[in-house]
């Protein structure tokens, strides 16, 4: 393999992905193919202005509004678009509901497909080789490493994201939250519970 040969020019590429991205960005900028200011704007938008708080809003609404929940599960894309959550990597959103019998978990085995308009930028572990390889093969073990232990009668279903479909897990509403409004409920919804690698927080 040429890439394994230390004398091959490709072997001089920086091993750190961040450096490789920087190199790529420099080349594309020099060729006039991208505008770094526009890139910064996109990253800032998805990192700071858009984030899991959007998805949390959707989940909280689904917990208190049965019609909304039904519509969300039937066809999530237009429902979340109505709330203003649409755009890059959010063209086809599918919501999957956790129940006492079924726990859903999301991965992208190929790369890092993720519902950006709802959850922002994917966390590093979501893009890691280990998570992508192991989520489908040994989901319970992976869940345990995230601190999630499910009853043995709860089945685990792993959804593999694609360029076409991005998933949002609708977690179960925690017990003891009957009196809470939408804002307080949304505060219990973590990013990981919408990927399926976590559970919502308990009310304090
Ligand atoms: Fe992907």
Structure description:
By secondary structure, the chain is mainly α. It has one domain (50-195): Nitrile hydratase alpha /Thiocyanate hydrolase gamma (Nitrile Hydratase, Chain A, Alpha-Beta Complex), CATH 3.90.330.10. 45% of the residues lie in helices and 11% in strands. The protein contains eleven helices and four strands; from the N terminus they run αααααββααααββαα. The protein has a two-stranded parallel sheet. A two-stranded parallel ribbon has the order 2-3. It is globular and about 55 Å long. It binds fe (iii) ion. Fe (iii) ion is lined by residues 108, 110-113, 161.
Observed structural traits:
Nitrile Hydratase, Chain A, mainly alpha
Summarize the structure.
The chain contains eleven helices and four strands, in the order αααααββααααββαα. It is mainly α and 204 residues long.
Q: Could you tell me which ligands this complex binds, including any ions or cofactors? A: fe (iii) ion
Helix content: 40-55%
Mean pLDDT equals 89
Q: Which outline best applies?
A: globular
CATH superfamily: Nitrile hydratase alpha /Thiocyanate hydrolase gamma
Number of strands: 4
State the major sheet: 2 strands, parallel
In the predicted model, the low-confidence regions spanning at least 5 consecutive residues are none
Q: What is the level-2 CATH architecture name?
A: Alpha-Beta Complex
| Whole-number tally of structural domains | 1
Helical region count? 11
Topology order in helix (H) and strand (E) letters: HHHHHEEHHHHEEHH
Strand order of the largest sheet: 1-4
Q: Between the first and last Cα atoms, what is the distance in angstroms? A: 56 Å
Helical/strand content category? mainly alpha
- How large is the share of residues in beta strands? 5-15%
What would the CATH topology be? Answer: Nitrile Hydratase, Chain A
- What CATH first level would be assigned? Alpha Beta
Radius of gyration: 19 Å
């Amino acid at each position: 393999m040429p890439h394994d040969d230390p004398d091959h020019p490709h072997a001089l590429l920086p091993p750190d992905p961040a450096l490789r991205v920087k190199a790529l960005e420099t080349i594309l900028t020099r060729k006039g193919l991208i505008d770094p200011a526009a890139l910064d704007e996109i990253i800032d938008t998805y990192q700071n202005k858009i984030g899991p708080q959007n998805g949390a809003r959707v989940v909280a609404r689904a917990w208190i509004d049965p019609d909304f929940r039904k519509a969300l599960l039937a066809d999530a894309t237009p429902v979340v678009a109505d709330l203003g959550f649409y755009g890059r990597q959010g063209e086809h959103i599918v919501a999957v509901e956790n129940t006492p019998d079924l726990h859903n978990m999301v991965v992208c085995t190929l790369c890092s497909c993720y519902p950006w308009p709802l959850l922002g930028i994917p966390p590093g572990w979501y893009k890691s080789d280990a998570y992508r390889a192991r989520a489908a093969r040994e989901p319970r073990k992976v869940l345990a490493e995230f601190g999630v232990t499910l009853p043995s009668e709860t089945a685990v279903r792993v959804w593999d994201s694609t360029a076409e479909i991005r998933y949002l897990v609708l977690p179960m509403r925690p017990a003891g939250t009957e009196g809470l409004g939408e804002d307080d409920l949304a505060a219990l919804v973590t990013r990981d519970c919408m990927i399926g690698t976590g559970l919502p927080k308990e009310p304090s």
